[in-house]
Write a structure and sequence with these properties.
497 residues; alpha/beta; Aldehyde Dehydrogenase, Chain A, domain 1; Aldehyde Dehydrogenase, Chain A, domain 2; 2 domains; seven-stranded mixed beta sheet; 37% helix; globular
């Protein structure tokens, strides 16, 4: 049976790339399974999509925000109806276990419901004027065409973080999904189209970063850019966007730490570390790739973690008894192996895993063992650099202050976690950890859609996705003054008259 061919969505029509080129999207659990054939687009397809979005903007921005929101709400209802179908297709193309894929779809549903509410809550401000017979207020305005580049690890949730707030604010969009997971983004946009979104308001162009992503950022008519991916690529995106003064939201890497103090509930912490380190096969920007454990419980916790991690069932995520799926592609497996070798050369103790899995169940996929290093020094590369795989490093610490010092001692600042029963230490951690997210007695993963999501330092450039942070990025302020005095009044000059 031949694989289905998927096309770009430009101006409401599904069309082939200008070049006529395409590529196969393979199932990472079994590369003999072709998920679909997708368009390998270039700058011409991007230009067509941006032109369509620019034309649609003139109409879409005039649709009242509550009406825009109703379409997003209906899309959320359709996503809920199609949750199982879309989750199974996501597991097939991305590899995450089926229950996590269901959660990914659910997150897009939650985002739709939240952002639909923002259609009636795009609050501005009214303030007293400093002059008589004058009215002053500020309102939110849409930006225009927004270019979006989304990653493969949350192929429906993260596009929803970008598309839904942009749409409810009155913008139009061109999105380039990751080449590894385009189907989930296409499914998301199909729900929007079936909900009644006018043609051209959202356009989907599939392909590779240098061929399609770079031209999207460079397009003059793209007025804002949202990128989620590596810090290396994000730096380039930010530099290119800055040349034309485009607002640019960068959501990039992380090297997140779970701190476990002597007084922690170790069984609870164990469950958190297993989920934080090996959920999504460690392929999350919020993954717990560092576990900082106070020396009083260090060995006890390490033994518990190794015992439980070696019992994790690795396999095709469509099997609901599987705990951890494959990595998304060969390059990610090679990266995990590279860092295992680095860790061993640095002197860290490899106590579990460290190899690509082999055997009949694994040979046609990209599987890597759950991997645990112990006795890791905070300055080792495996404790400093993002790995994006099922590899975690246990780091001993002396006390609370030492733990905070280690947690803050990396280039990133996305997510963080502390396990303790001491409320004073919990509040100090909330204050002193320099990160965009801090969890108390929970792992580093599990953000909710109605709070801002993002980080500090090399993790991002200060913008936030989710909640009001997204509304702030996808809208711009306009201050309005209405003078009904029937005479010239000069601000700051005539105040004393």
């Amino acid at each position: 049976m031949s694989a289905k061919t998927y096309k770009n969505l430009i101006d409401g029509a599904w069309i082939e790339s200008r070049s006529g080129q395409s590529y196969e999207n393979l199932n990472p659990a079994d590369t003999r399974d072709v998920v679909g054939i997708f368009q390998r687009s270039d700058q011409r397809d991007i230009a067509d999509a941006v032109a369509a979005a620019a034309r649609a903007f003139d109409r879409w921005r005039l649709v009242p925000a509550p009406r825009r929101a109703e379409i997003i709400y209906r899309a959320g209802e359709l996503l809920l109806e199609r949750k199982e179908e879309y989750a199974r297709q996501m597991t097939q193309e991305m590899g995450k276990v089926l229950n996590e894929a269901r959660g990914d779809v659910q997150e897009s549903v939650d985002t739709a419901y939240y952002m639909a509410g923002e259609g009636r809550r795009q609050f501005g401000v009214t303030v007293p004027s400093e002059l008589p017979n004058k009215f002053a207020m500020a309102v939110r305005m849409p930006i225009g065409v927004c270019g979006m580049i989304s990653p493969w690890n949350f192929p429906m949730a993260i596009p929803s973080w970008k598309l839904f707030p942009a749409l409810v604010c009155g913008n139009t969009c061109v999105i380039k999904p990751a080449e590894d997971t385009p189907l989930s983004t296409i499914n998301l946009v199909k729900a929007l189209m079936d909900a009644g979104l006018p043609k051209g308001v959202v356009n989907v162009v599939t392909g590779f970063g240098p061929e399609a992503g770079a031209p999207l950022v460079e397009q003059t008519n793209v007025r804002a850019v949202s990128f989620t991916g590596s810090s290396e690529v994000g730096r380039i995106v930010g530099e290119v966007a800055a040349r034309s003064f485009k607002p640019c939201s960068l959501e990039m890497g992380g090297k997140n730490a779970i701190i476990i103090l002597d007084d922690a509930n170790l069984d609870l912490a164990l469950e958190g570390v297993l989920w934080g380190a090996f959920g999504t096969t460690g392929q999350r920007c919020t993954a717990a790739s560092r576990v900082i454990v106070q020396r009083g419980v260090y060995r006890q916790f390490a033994d518990k973690l190794i015992y439980r991690a070696q019992k994790l069932k690795v396999g095709n995520g469509i099997d609901e008894t599987v705990d951890m799926g494959p990595q998304v592609n060969q390059a990610q497996v090679e990266t995990a192996q590279k860092y295992v070798d680095i860790g061993k050369n640095e002197g860290a103790k490899l106590e579990l895993g460290g190899h690509r899995l082999k055997g009949p169940a694994y040979d046609n996929g990209w599987f890597f063992e759950p991997t645990v290093f112990t006795d890791v020094d905070p300055q080792m590369r495996i404790a400093q650099e993002e790995i994006f795989g099922p590899v975690t490093a246990l780091i001993p610490c002396n006390d609370f202050d030492h733990a905070i010092e280690i947690a803050n001692g990396v280039a990133y600042g996305l997510s963080s976690s502390v396990y303790t029963r001491d409320v004073n230490k919990a509040f100090k951690a909330m204050r002193d950890i320099y990160a965009g997210i801090t969890y108390i007695n929970a792992p580093t993963i599990g953000a909710e859609v109605h709070l801002p999501f993002g980080g500090t330092k090399a993790t991002g450039n200060g913008h936030r996705e989710g909640g009001l942070g997204a509304i702030d990025f996808y809208s711009q302020w306009k201050s309005i003054y209405v003078d009904f005095s029937d005479r010239l009044q000069r601000a700051q000059i005539d105040m004393g008259e």
